[in-house]
Queue: 4 jobs
Job 1
Amino acid sequence: MTPQENLVTIKDGELQHIVRQVVTRVLAEQNAPTSNAPAAPAPKTIAIGADHGGVALKIDLAKYLAELGYAVNDCGAFSADPVDYPDIAYAVAKLVSDGAAARGIVIDGAGIGSAMTANKVPGVRAALCYDLSTARNAREHNDANVLTLGARLIGAGLARDIVKVFLETDCAEERHKQRVAKIMDVEKRYLRK
């Protein structure tokens, strides 16, 4: 077989899509520190990312976070071109896990897949929030450190309000802290070294 016979035929537009996916993945990996030792979170740094369905909301929330005085680490996507939400959710969750960001925000169409992905990263407690009550509960009761949002389910105004509550609410009561410690104990049972 000649080298020309081994070539794969790529249809118009497929190459551009493949290149975008590779670039998004590389950028996400560059934004995610590789240190294994957890560091103290940067108190005013928020990692944020979105897939193509959440880019517009991400841009709005990044501006809002800056207005609130937070430093923003944008993990992509940077256009409405299709990307895979697990890559973005992982990049945000890794920054939180490594202590490079105090909290993270991930936006996709419904927020569900990003929460599932982020929760696979050690030390991350991601919560899909769709109103102020769930945002407050996620922080007060579960000490969630990553917020996921569904861009197709909520508008920008509600998203801003959810983010504000999520960032301003603490897990203060001892009974809740004890329960969070139990969550982390479950995680430790399944960590592979």
Note: The longest strand covers residues 45-50.
Job 2
Amino acid sequence: SKKGYRALKEIKKNGGKILAETAPHYLLLTKDLLKREDAQKYFMTPPLRGKEDNEALWEALRDKYISVIDTDHCSYTTEQKFLSSNCLDILAGIPGSETLLPLVYSYGVKRGYFNVKNMVNLLSTNPAKIFGLYPEKGSLEVGTDADLVIFDPKKEIIISNSQQHTAAGYTPFDGFKVKGYPTTTILRGKIIINNNRFYGERGGGKFLKGKRSGLY
């Protein structure tokens, strides 16, 4: 939020060691969505704020006060989200893992808030360093895990619910137009997604043991 950004700047100004993150929904969505009949789909904690808060967070990213853009991904289905209309009982959280990269590129890089190198830091290198996983993750150094995304900066799509593969079955960014979209995902040197088709195998995941943060 705008208020949070002011506090963050003050802490850093006074020499405080602090890391901050945000997510696409706090950059692109507003509390007006909570007036809709399907408001439960946009319920999360912290809640959505106003447009001025969106703008403050973009400014914070531009000036490098924020270290990470993440997804806050929660794969609650629409059925689960609509189990209650009481804000004390609604399952808080929204899906976002499939839309992170195209949204950040389209609305962050293309609008001049940061360049591609800084985007990579926000989405990959910094998270890896924070959790003590660098350089095995978040780098392309020889001998590391070779986790790669092949990205087409010219591919234009309109994000839709029907494109999503997660258990949630919907996206809060339905209808958003993006230019720039991933075509291939490589995990430890092996293609697991290509042209929207999944080739991964059950049990292909690997536990990652973190170490002390590489940033502080």
Note: The mean pLDDT is 95.
Job 3
Amino acid sequence: MISKLIKKHIGRIGTLLLASVLLAVLLEFLQIHNQPPAYENNLQVVQEADLLDFSQAELTNAYLDGGSLKTGGEGSTILLRFQPAKELSYLQIEAKKHVRSPFPIRVYWSKDGETFSETNMIEIQAIPESVAWSGTIPEDEYAALKIEMDNKMTIRFLKCRAEVKEKVPVREQMRLWRIGIMIPGLFLILSLLCWFRTGKRLTAAVQQMISFLKESGWRTPLRFIIFLTLSFLAYVLIRWLISGAFFGKVNVPQQLFCILAGLTAGLLLSFPKTLGRKPERLFVLFCLLSGWMILYLFPNDLTVNWDMEYHFEQTHLYSYLGEERLTNPDMSIIFMEGSHDSFEWEERIKSQESQQEQYELGVFYTERKGLMLNSIYEIFPAAGMYMGRLLHLSWPWTMYFAKLFNLLTVAACGFFAIRRLKNGKMILACVMLIPTNIFLASVFSYDHGVTSFMALGLSYYFAEWQEAEKKLTYRNAFVILGSLTIALLTKAFYAPVLLFTAIMPRGKWAESREEKLQYISRKRYFLFSGLVLLISLIPYILPLLQGNVVTDMRGGTSTTPMEQIRFILEDPLRYLQIMFNCQKECFNPANSAGILTFFAYEGIGPGWQVLCVLLALVALTDKKPSDRLLERKPFIRILGLFLFYISTCIICFCLYITFTEVGASYINGVQCRYFLPFVFPVLMLAASGFAAKMINVDREWKQQLYNGIAYSVSLIVLFINIYINCISKFS
């Protein structure tokens, strides 16, 4: 089958391959010409020094000796006349050797060439530590210059302008190895864009938008005016709540908060049809508006963000595809050399100006390094970092661009995931708008990437149950397995999820030869699932086989994986007790804030109890008849929940053997955010549709109201957390 497909599409494959090669060369060319330069060790003279010719000087108690001038001691005078007058602002006297003791040299200047006075004089101190001494003259044109001293010395040069030196950029060559890495990646991306008919879909979307604008006529500008009006009213109200007065005094971060929160409220109130029919479109805007505040205002500081130095370094490496080119601001983050930003606005502005000055000094450290496959998610913020350099943005704004691409990735995953679901859209939307998830999406991290791509893959999986009458297409299977590949490469803890996606409704698999051309068979799906599992585990299995398991400082020097495994095998009941105690702590509803409203080192925000109630309610009510097939399969639902529980056991096991000292009665490193990817699938599996029958959302206005309430509660909690954990800390 594969050989037939290759023969059929050989022309298209060749075109895509050629396009990949040309695009890789273009991207490398742009990389070389827009990256911060590295400089040679030696400076290059770009302008020679301006030397005064003392061969025509009028000398007193001094004489010429070859190319030098020797002074005789007391009363030595050198008179230089210039015709026409010479512009002077500086004089440097360079001796042939060091003097024995310090002495003064008097320098006079005259505009008429005859009159010299003490008011037009500077005194330059000759010191033994140097052979060159200089002074500044008021910048002007002078007809004469007189130099007096009372000591013997040999003068090599008199300079009225020092030589100008500049750093010489290293001549960079295009990296063939980097082009070689890009070609297969670009070929894969272009092939997928072709396979999913992205060009046709974008064209159709643009045409649909144009036709909509033509048909709507005056209603579109009217709707826009209503949106701006409602946004302004919301802005005024929020500003009043913050400052205690209408248009009361607020600082810059508070002003930004009021504007973005007002726009969010305006969107929620102005577009009811979009809210009811296409909630994924509003989700993208809500995600970007709330996340922008965090990525722009939250400090790039190691003391407020989890593992920022590691994620920044991996992003930086991926932006150069394996070459480390560090400027001073880059090194200060990677090597944890102090603070970059703070919650003091004026200090932040000064800090960013200093960072830019350091960035413009160029690269101080270069080294070719490999790329870590288990940091593959960092390629998304790395694309933003690359674009920032391409657009010649300042260093702080290049950082913002990298984090913006982080946020865009989450918004895109959420958009396609919510759109694919027939029901449960608001379950996923509320999960994706959890404050912890938006916070992680707006800083240097990859935990949100696991949540987003798992949500994308599992939304396509649940949609297959909602459309049980349709067979599983290759495209949908690819989205499921491709999304889970990125999630599992980042953190292989969640590998049991793959087993769950293999459980499909009866009749989903292709049976006949004709069906297999368009739909996937069970065997092929299992084969591809095994391949995904192998690819995901390779980055973790190889170090284990080589004895290079990475441990953590939290475990101290007594962290030894093999010894820890031996301890578990010798006393498995003891280990199970330790694991259950850890899980009991993590799954305690009172600790839900660690999953829902945790802003790293800035602490836990309010409203997690409200979110718990909201998530429970949408899980019970966001159900339709198409969900009943899965609801009637309690064994499958229990099996799915059990597989997710197995994932939590794997998390505990891995962190116990790598992050915890041998035989400890606790497990180090288990953080609540690791369980965030489970929230969406658990809500989809655990709740039934009984409550949905009671509220019966069967009309459009009911759907608009339902979605509006769910979004409103989520966004209010989200914005309150952003204000308390970020905005309110600015003075």
Note: Residues 395-420 form the longest helix (26 residues).
Job 4
Amino acid sequence: METTQAFSSEFYTALLPEMMLFAGLLALIVIPNLGKGTFRIPGTQIRLPWFMGGERYALTSNPHLPAWIATITLTGAFFAVGDSLRGGIDSLLVMSSDADSAKELLMINGFSRVFELIFFGALALASFASMNRLKVEGVGSKLDVEKLYNNRRQADFYILMLTCGLGMSVVALAQDLFVLFIGLELASFSTYVLVAFLKETKAGAEAGMKYFIVGSVASGVGLYGLSMLYLWAGSLQFDVLAATFATSGTEPLPLIGIGFVLVGFGFKVSAAPFHFAAPDAYAGASSPVAGVLATASKAMGMVGLIRMLLIVAAPESSEGSAVWLVCLGALAALTMTWGNLAALGSTNPKRMLAYSSVAHAGYMLAGLTAVGAWTWDPSFAG
């Protein structure tokens, strides 16, 4: 395994997809605002161009420009990840730049890259599909506040798309509880706003509010669980936490902490009984955003669960880990059953998609339980 320091040349090369997303964010902030604006030097009549505001250029007045920037950026990041997988990727561990107390921050390997393919692919398709869904009108030299507002919303929508992808990528790469939580919240707050983006409709406003409230509570519970793990182990590093679990994982504090973390990520994967905001969120959001919730957001929750349950609280490291293994199996059975039964009474296609995603979350949790059971006792493999 190779290691590199944060902000080194190798760091930027390895994180090329994330750098592309960051460049796309800057482009979405700057390019749609380019125009023939000028400013006057104080005390003179001299006016100098500063290329922001005023009469907009023909290119930047295109209301679909933000959609194209986001779609091209996400597609480029998708192919950059695919190229790194095709050429073979060695595990690269990114350390903090503090020489006295270097800490593991990110792990770039095939596992994280596969999940990034899911994130960027789903977001690229959603960005392209949203191109003609938001209200847009061309803005010329005449100042029209409503047109400018609608076009500003275009840029805001796709900024949130790229921010969501960046947060999900951080979750997939994280090797530290703090980094994991930052990525999780970066993606979460973006999805809250995306769900409520159709705020002119009653369903959109209600869905956004419910999703935000339930999601905030789930994130708070998950954060409390992470803080309990830090209090117990005295470290935020995954490797230190795993080593501590191997020696004293049967203590109540880490088991309760893992349980709270399971609640936080259970909301992200729409596992029962943490799924109650999902049907309303899917029904009130636009179809592309509902697709993102059903794919990319769910994949982010799964990669977080895998990191926390199979790497930090690995079943083979402690008999106490069997406690969460049983809980995870029960949660999978409940989620599969409830998701399929609840869909029987639904007539709204988006609500049916939501309950289908709940059921599929149960299938994924069942697979995660099977992997955990095998690592705890290989005889389960038959």
Note: Confidence is low (pLDDT under 50) at residues 378-382.
